# Entry
Amino acid sequence: MNLILLLFMALPQDYVNLIMQGKYVDAVNYCDAMIDKGKDVLKWQIEKGDIYLDKIGDFGKATEIYSNVIEKHKKKDGWYHYRLALALEMNEDYLNAAKSYEVVATQFRKFPLDSFALNGVERCFKKNYQDFVATIDGYNITRLELDELIAKRSTFAKRDEKAILDQMIVMRLLFASAIKNNVRETDFFKDAMEDKKKSLLLEEINAVEIAGKALPTEKKMKKYYRKNKKNFELREEIKGKEIIVESDSLAKFLLDSLEKDIESFNTLAKLHSTAATKRSSGNMGVVYRDSKPKSVDKALFKAKLNELIGVIQFDDKFGIYLVTEHKPKRHRKFDEVRNQIEATLKAENIKSLEEKFMKNLKKKAKFEIYEDIMSDSVRVTEDKVVAIVNGREILRSFVEKRNESQPNFARVNLNDSEEFDKLLNTIIEEELKIEWAERKKYFLNDGFVAKWKVETEGLMANGLYRKIVVDAVSVDSQEVKDYYEEHKEEFKILETVKCQEIVVDSLNFAKEIRKFLLENPEKFDSLAKEHSIAPTGKRGGTTGSIRKGTKPKKFEDIAFKLPVGSISKVFSVDDSTYTVIKLVEHNPVTYRTFNEVGKNIETGLLRQKQREVADAFLVKVREEAEIEIFLSEPEKEGETKEEEIKKEDLNEKKE
# Structure
């Protein structure tokens, strides 16, 4: 369950705006000021702890604040203990985190808090489990964690558990290095974290406020079924066999044979029927009413099962039929269409709930959209405020940045006022949703917590790569030029020729063609199309671009020495055909210019340097870390336990 029902206090708009704008230091000062005033001290202390936990990522400070609140204030509240447990867990103090979660689960048994706490206990149990598969500088990876990751991979992942464990070790090394290198303080990480948090909060809102409430009740589904029963109607149908012939006499002969031996229907259908169904021994498959000619349809749907239907004439054809199954018009049962109805109603509910939710948010919000922002002068000369949402400005540049962050297919034309307004409205709606999530403390929701822990590792690794590799590595112009000169052969454009060819199987005919072409070279196309037996004949003998080593040596020796526009002598590359060619184009060896390839060289050198720096960094952190692996060696295939014991005994004797 992912719903927090308790709103601790109505937060002032000016304070919420500090949070929404990422001004967390100012927000902490705001909390301190409220505490100094002695107004709602307990609540503002908790709010301050929330900033350190959820925004700044100082889990030690958050732990200190929550611990002091619990210790000093007599009021017992499970949410305080739950916050403390989260801070301890994020600070990797899993033992004490588990204890705090246990307090919540046992002493504050109230939905959804107890459910959140039990999930926290489970997460910490996996970390506190004493069966370790590896330790990295005192940090433990447990067998439960490894097995859980393996279970998420393919069915063959168990065979590669050592490789998967190595990935877990690398991720831990990167995470620890990111903390050591203050990655949390980089702008890249902060921006990525804000974007990811907003994305997760929007997902959580959808899960809680929309999808979580959209599931229809059994009563409503049954009501929908009764009201729309005609939509679940199944048409009347029959199954059977047919033999269609074009002769009345043959049809009567076949009917007579079938009346004597009905088991021969399949064989006679294959031998005599002219219908497409003969391939399947006359089997018609499913036949619905009104899908056959009227006379046939009437007879089929009145027929008794497994009794021959005499010769029926239609469209100058004659048919014999056998009906093997007949299902009347009927309705699918509720249980058969339950999932379909549920999906339909859920989709309708989602749309309705989304509209209602946004309507309520907009009703309570104060926002203004400026309609004149599309004028040319504004668009070109200044970064205009395009909207104000609860006192927070949205600039045109933000809309442009948002549009640029989308994949190409999702970008809109911001010069089109309708498309601009549509994107702006989406941004405003998201802004209102995120503010709702901040006020409702959605970061405490179990659904958010589980995803955020996973995402944090990835963001830290990306931030570390950016700081250690991307920002630290560069390539100067001289390096690019030097590489070009030293590796010029990489940019060689090979010598090529283009020809037209006529290939025939007679030497004399080939000579006649050549003689004619010497006088009428413009006729090469038509002669090739008319006489050449090579595949190129259809396109006037054109060979396309030819590089050395792609054609027979004799062909290349002639083609690469022939002047452009000249007709070759007749030559043979095998013992059965004779060829005449005309050289259309000759391109000597050239080299791509520096201007053409400089950018690609720079990119390649940069990637190579980045790869080398990244590899060296990973080797370094591995060497500096104390890593112990406790995986048992896998048994060799075919080796029994008895053989293992014998080997151990033999080793002992040797010793």
User: Anything to note?
Assistant: Confidence is low (pLDDT under 50) at residues 1-8, 375-380. The chain is about 55% helix and 15% strand.
